[in-house]
Amino acid sequence: MQLINTDLFLLIESSRLKFTVVDEQIAAYFLEGNPPLKQSSIAHKINVSTASITRFCQKIGFENYKEFIFAYRNTLEELTIDKNNVTHNLKFRYKELINNIDENLDIQDIQTVCEYIYRHKIIHVYGLGLSAIAGADFKFRFTRIGKFVEVVQDHNSIEMVSSLLNEDNLVICLSLRARNQYVLDSLRQLQQQGTSIIMITSNQSPEIRKLANVTLLTSSLKNTNEVGQISVQIPLLIIIDMIYSQYISMYRENISKWIHTEHAYLQGHNM
Fold first, then answer.
1. In the record, which residues are listed under signal peptide (predicted)?
2. Domain boundary among 47, 82, 117
C-alpha cells in the first residue's frame, strides 16, 4: 500500500514502455480522470477483459484492482482539492491586490494626475513588455474622450521620443518594478527638460519617487508563482481604471461637450 501516496498518473506514464495495446487502452481511461467504476463495468465500457485490467494494475506495482482503484480514488480527490485551493487562493490574492492598492493610494494623487491629463492634449505612455498592454488600455480609454495618446514600448523609441519632449508634454510611465535603467535614464532626461512625469509602479523607492511629479503606487506580485497565475499588467490596469473613473467624474461636462462637438463635426463631414 505504499504506492497510494505516489503520483499515480506519473506512475502510469513511467510504466508505458512495458504496456501492450490493451494496457494503453486501459491507461487512457484512467489518465483522462474518468469515474472509478467497478472492474467489470470498466472492462465492458472500454471493451477489454477484467483479467487485462488486473494485469495492468500489476504492471504498475499494485497487487490487484481493489488496491489500484483505492489509490485512484484518492488521487482524484486530491486533484479536486488542489483545483479548489488554486481558485480560492487566486480569489484571495485578487482581494489582497485591491486592499494593498487602497492602502497605498491617496485620492488626492489620483485627482492631481487627472489634472495633468486634462491640461495636456498629447500624452506619451512609456511601457515595456506587458506594461505596454496596460498602456494600450489607457490609450483606448482616453482617445475616446479627446486625448491623443502615443504608447512608446521599446528602448530605442523611448530614448528617441524623450529627446524631443519638453515642458509642454506629459509622460506616463507604467512599470511594476521600475528597474530598467534605460527607462530610468530617459525619465531623468525628461526631468531635466521640464517634462511632466506620472509614474505608476509598485516600487516604493524614494529615488523612483524623485523622478516623477506624481507617483501612484500599485501592488506588486510577491513571488514568481503569481506571475503565471495573475497577469502582470493587472495591478497597472486597476490604477488606470481608477484614473479614468476619477477623470470622468471630474470633467464630465467638458467630455460631454467634446463628444457633442466631435459628433456634429463628423455628421457635417459625412454630408
1. none
2. 82
pLDDT tens readout for residues 30-77: 988 889 999 999 999 999 999 999 999 999 989 999 999 999 988 887
Residue 176, CA distances (Å) to 59, 111, 200 in order? 52, 21, 7
Distance separating alpha carbons of residues 157 and 247, to the nearest angstrom? 28
* Total-model pTM: 0.64
Instruction: Give the CATH number of the domain where residue 55 resides.
Output: 1.10.10.10
> In terms of domains, do 199 and 74 share one?
no
The CA distance from 152 to 171, in Å, is 10
Residues 6+ apart with CB under 8 A from 109: 214, 215, 216
End-to-end CA distance of the chain: 83
pLDDT digits over 193-246, tens only? Answer: 999 999 999 999 999 999 999 999 998 765 444 444 667 788 999 999 999 999
Q: How many CB atoms lie within 10 A of CB 237?
A: 16
CATH of the domain at 159: 3.40.50.10490
111 and 64, same domain (yes or no): no
- DSSP annotation of 172: E
CB–CB of 136/151 below 8 Å?
Answer: yes
Q: How far is CA 33 from the centre of its chain?
A: 29
| Domain ranges, residue 77 | 2-82
Residue-wise pLDDT tens digits, 241-256: 999 999 999 998 888 7
